[in-house]
Amino acid sequence: MKPFELSIAQAITMMEKGELSSLEITRSCLERIDEVEQEVCAFITIDKEGALRQADEADRRRKAGAAGKLCGIPLTIKDLLSTKGLKTTCGSKILENYIPPYDATVVEKLKDEGAVILGKVAMDEFAMGSTSETCAFGVPRNPWKKGYVAGGSSGGSAASVAAYECFGSLGSDTGGSIRQPASLCGIVGLKPTYGRVSRFGLTAFASSLDQVGPLCRTVEDCALMMNVISGYDQRDSTSVQQNVPDFSSSLVHGLEGVRVGVPREYFTEGLDPEVEAIVRNSIEVLRQRGAKVIDVSLPHTEYCVAVYYLIAPSEASSNLARYDGVHYGYRDMEADTLLDMYKKTRSAGFGAEVKRRILIGTYALSSGYYDAYYKKASQVRTLILDDFKKAFHSCDLLISPVTPTAAWRMGENTEDPLAVYMSDILTISANLAGIPGMSVPGGFTESGLPVGVQLQGGHFQEEMLLKAGFNLEQGLQLGRGKLDLG
Ligand code: GLN
Description:
There is one protein chain. By secondary structure, the chain is an alpha/beta fold. The chain has a domain at 3-254 and 437-476: Amidase signature (AS) enzymes (Alpha-Beta Complex). Helices cover 38% and strands 13% of the residues. It contains 15 helices and eleven strands. It has helices at 8-16, 22-40, 48-63, 105-112, 155-162, 179-184, 219-229, 273-288, 304-319, 338-349, 352-365, 371-394, 417-422, 428-433, 462-476, and strands at 43-46, 74-78, 116-121, 168-173, 188-191, 211-216, 259-263, 292-296, 397-401, 437-444, 450-457. The chain has an eleven-stranded mixed sheet with strand order 1-3-2-4-6-5-10-11-9-7-8, with helices on both faces. β7, α8 and β8 form a beta-alpha-beta unit. α2 packs antiparallel against α3 (48-63). The radius of gyration is 21 Å and the shape is globular. The two termini are 18 Å apart. Bound molecules: glutamine.
């Protein structure tokens, strides 16, 4: 086994025993990147020198007896989290050359614990999309099948982890962007409870929905990353003062006494039969491990897509006003007047999907339409939250598909934004309600594409998700499978 094939937990154990150094592990990842990146296209920026320097430093810290929790572990970071001195583009031409003067809190925390940052990975422009195809700097590929999307918007995160270019990645999830690419790439992705992880230094898309979270190859690794990134941050007023448990201690065998709800509305038309079969099989595995399975209802599910695609663009239209050619990044230099400069800068700097969202959001917030659209959507959002609250009276977690289908071909839906929006139907409700959600590999389709299973829990119930996810992983024993690379 080569070092890059290890899990985070295994690599830490080997480094603790002195059997492996961070330099060896980091070099192994860099060699793997050299070998497969041309096909995977996960990175926007590879920081080879920086990574080797950090690895060396990590080895020194370990020798001095000062190893942090992720000391020496090579990770990638979605390109919308601020990294001091390292380009942060958000997948957009408008930030093509933007180098932040500060680290996001989550990045700072990773560095404090000794993690090695290999580079920044591709994403849909400003995290708007489900395939990473709106990225201005190359589109990540699904390592399991040539010509297929890796999902999005954290597609580079998922692809880099699935292709063994790194040990784990940080992504962001506004409507499914951690869970969906994790599902499509056969890895584990966790969107924490809103407020669990600091958003300081995360480029805002829809501030009331955005959360940062880990993508890893195992549930245990997700727990290890959660241990580091969680917690209150003074610099994010929406982060919550709540004790951070040791997430690793929730990884215990057996689900006796756990009530698993199966939301009826998540198993309706449009759900691919192969995906359904994989999820039903996973339900059986949880039952065999001691869980009690019950039927539940989330009656407002059918409104989720409409509500999300009003609220998210509304917030985006306001958040993206800051890209005006003055504060950050790209500026049109030909314009004669200030207004002309704004127009030309934004016309050339933003891609089509971002413009579409800004237009929808501006419309939904404008006087005369505000009550009919934004306000109404906010009211229905409360009903969606109430659905979950009621469901969690009778169960401890929910199990469902992550997406209605496995990954699809690149370019397939690019002309039909509505079709892509609809594919978010099973993930966006967790963001609207602020609850945690996780995708755990559940199996493969006939054609060899991975399919994830979604677990959702009540606010701050990440431990329950990790426990169930761990049991699912242990019960299924899917093995490594065969990537379609090289
Ligand atoms: N696919 C959804 C969208 O396009 C979610 C994106 C995300 O979670 N960042 O908005």
